[in-house]
Fold each of these.
Amino acid sequence: MKVEEIKPYNSTGAKTAQVREMFDSIAPAYDFMNRAMTLGIDRWWRHVAVKLVRKARPQRILDVATGTGDFATGLYKKVRPKQVVGIDLSRGMLDVAQRKIQERGMSDAITLLQADCLDMPFRDGEFDAVTVAFGVRNFEHLQQGFEQMHRVLSPGGMLCVIELSTPRNTVIKWFYDLYTLHIIPWVGALKSHDRSAYRYLPLSIAAVPQGDDMLNIMRQAGFNHCKVKRLTLGTCSIYTALK
């Protein structure tokens, strides 16, 4: 089954609407669950990605599916661009992000907008870098999402995508499946009271294109110099490309 067909609640409604509803539901618990699910390693994954973006020295960064703002604030702190814009479907997630940005004194540097990544309200070539952290598997149309990100990038601009992935080693995958398919949904239901959201997570990870398959989608969207960097026994992949 394609990742676009994996939906949080049912098979009939549009994925975009269901993803928005899901993240509105789990927004208060999202940061806690991120730390719990990854044992805190997600912070290091973002750190690695930020270092890759920093090498490109972008002045205008768009963070797609910005969620609660951890990647956007990390980018501003380490890269120091003139502007960071974060967009997300979920108002609930953006509210959490806005409080975080205010607490960190970054309100003048980071702008948040509720917007759909499949129809972004930006001019062609408006940004020097586009980033996505753990969000592309939630796109209703993956190819269209990459085409939109390509459109808003300036010539020579950088794309950086962090996404969860499945380990290749058989033994490691057995433990990974036990953790993601059974333990995470149980903990997620206790903490967020939304069991469906944390059943959706491992299913969407398993279905999202990985490795060369993801790179091919990026190339089809117009990107060049597409690369993948696997981290932590293959449980996370960082994809980079240039326009």
Note: The chain has a mean pLDDT of 91.
Amino acid sequence: MLTSLFSSSTVTLPGVLLMIGLALALGTLSALFHRKMNHCSQSMFLTLACLPLITGTVILVVNGNLGAGIAIAGSFSLIRFRSAQGTGSEILALFLSASLGLCLGAGYWAVAVILLLAYMLLMLFLRALPLTDKPELLRELRITVPESLDYEGLFDDVLKEHFSAYSLDRVKTADMGSTYQLLYTVTKKAGQEDKACLDAIRIRNGNLPVSLGRIPERSIAM
């Protein structure tokens, strides 16, 4: 069961078709699972669905040829360095899809199935643990304050009232240095209204712009 489909250097058409079918099935299943768990973009979904097929085909073609394998690995590295940085879950999903393709390209279909099932079960188990915030409750809060205002700790009591957790990630100047923009990552409390929070902040920042929204998705371009 755990032996390779390609026990010899000769690649047969039935073996190739089986590898392609498994790559499409496992890649699509992996993409659907990641989209369900992390609400990924369409670009990321298509990448995860197609990556096992591409990786498996490349490994199948260069099987036994060390020089060609090194050249292909170098090409993949160049493509990766030209892409945008993604979240940890996106990078992990990409590694999973690439690993599925590697297993299928080498003929170890049972290993690929076990890997995908183990990943899905582990992710479901970890998500069930009360260790991290739910993605749908995470928000990005931007507060604009005048240059003359001492913002250190100014909004802490408001944030504690409306959010279960918050962190100041970045501060930058705006409007030719006349204002500061504070960027927070916050976790909403269930039942809290956004308007009440925004109104409380506007009283303290002189009615300057305040925005509260979902954290923008970052997709990885392959």
Note: Residues 218-222 have pLDDT under 50 and may be disordered.
Amino acid sequence: MIDNYDNIIQKAQTLVEALPYIRAYTNKYVVIKYGGNAMNSPEIIKTIMQDVAALKTVGVYPVVVHGGGPEINAMLSRVGKQSKFINGLRVTDEETMDIVQMVLCGKVNKNICSLLGSMGVRAVGLSGKDGGLIRVRKKPPADGVDYGYVGQITSVDADMIEDLCLEDYVPVIASIGADANGVGYNINADTAAGEIGAAIGAHKLIFLTDIDGIRRDPADPSTLMPEVSVADVERMIEDGTISGGMIPKVRGCVTAVRRGIKHVNIVRGTIPHAILVELFTDRGIGTLIKE
């Protein structure tokens, strides 16, 4: 019986700790970028969506922005195509673009919406091509590299996202955009999340990743940095501490910070209930990027 009371008391203390944070985020936009290895485990996927549902229940306006790298890679392998990445960006020819759109819009996006729906959440699946939500232009070649159908965001329709949230929906946005002629382009999901968060004036932007945050030594988990400045990020990119797929991720963070979002975090997405731990506990987890 005492053990049961201890359990109940612990749960009550957790709730008391969370209450001031819940009040702070009520009626605020929280953008969650979801992708990577967090999409590979049904158990982790379920806890992430439970977190999104919990945010909705307590009056937060969550917006989910997703990629689908593992799913895209698997489909490309099936058709005998090999992925090529440069500075964390997928080089995307016309056939690859068709597959990216099919996987992100036709499979991943709808699976997320369906799972949220099973939890009582009214989720609406979108891509940047829907209603001109995300306008892009072709990313210009860099260092002699033509990225193909990779888009550079020129505008985000913030009103569409805000209207959906206010109508009690959770927008679930696939990272694809369209140019002025309606041609589809692949967008790095981290970049899309940063631009979307900045456009709607999000109170918080959480990047769920495969690692626990930014480290002074990428190979040493004990060097995790709880906070870094934008200047630190730029220096770490220059000296190679931040490289590969982490570059667009931290660039998305920097964009969001410079556009006025004060709370931008990189968090390990494979930790059960990582979103709630970051938002509603005193310590939080991961790395906070600040000005």
Note: The longest helix spans residues 94-118.
Amino acid sequence: MVKTAIIETSGGPENITIVDREVGRPGAGEILIEHRACGLNFIDVYQRTGMYPLELPHALGMEASGVVKAVGEGVAHLKVGDRAAYAAAPPGAYAEARVMPAAQVCPLPDGISFDEAAAMMLKGLTVQYLFHRTTPLVRGDTVLFHAAAGGVGLIACQWARSEGITLIGTAGTDEKCQLALAHGAAHCINYRTEDFAAKVRELTEGKGVDVVMDAVGADTFEGSLDSLKPLGMMISFGNASGPVAPFSVGLLGQKGSLKITRPTLFTHIAEHETCQEMAQMLFGKVVSGDVKIRIDQRFALTDVAAAHKALEARKTTGSTILTL
């Protein structure tokens, strides 16, 4: 029996309960992994609230690290005793151990700790696809990145700096702006005290940015479009403030023949080989020191409801993990 965090009905953090569950043995294409740490992400909130519906009851959590304890038939890239980490479906990472599909579980280099791995897989793979798989970006390009002091944002600030890309961040306090700047943002705008779209225009001498990377959603959508240069790309990859309202596609033409996309990590990592290649690039950034993983909050698995409350209240910076 292992402790696992589940929801039986959608709703607030108080709906998360800790139960004891049988783990079982891995079947073909599966592994049994004993977790050392679990990551916390906004997708967990979306699933808990029902924004991204689950068939209930269901365990939560999309990201963790640990040690492989058993391997099913047909799994060739992992063996018993391997250190491993993942960001992968189906949800169920908030657990002491689980059986899960092996394809998106990645061997973990010795130079990366379990805590770092649990804090970086979903966020770091997200940054990898934003910078390398969504739209062409080259040295000298400029991007606007919302929530730049969050877990994804601090990785993105460092990633951009390592590749010669100018990153303009936004954050909700001056302290968070300073954090983003310290991690490689060229500029950071406090969106509570400044009109970020106007400031972006000022910083880019009226041109606008090449790409906007926006996980905030409803609150920043219109300003994000107004921050783009003609033919620019809007990447909407989250809904922290709620989903973007329906809009007329003609708006994109009016604002300069803009492009827009709504990617998900799980589409990008669906193929085993692609997922492993993306992870290798992420691991390389971390092992080289180009990207340092900042963990600012740690909660016990049994305190997962408090962790969700802190994340939703935007009281967190960097990454948050659940310890076991």
Note: The radius of gyration is 20 Å.
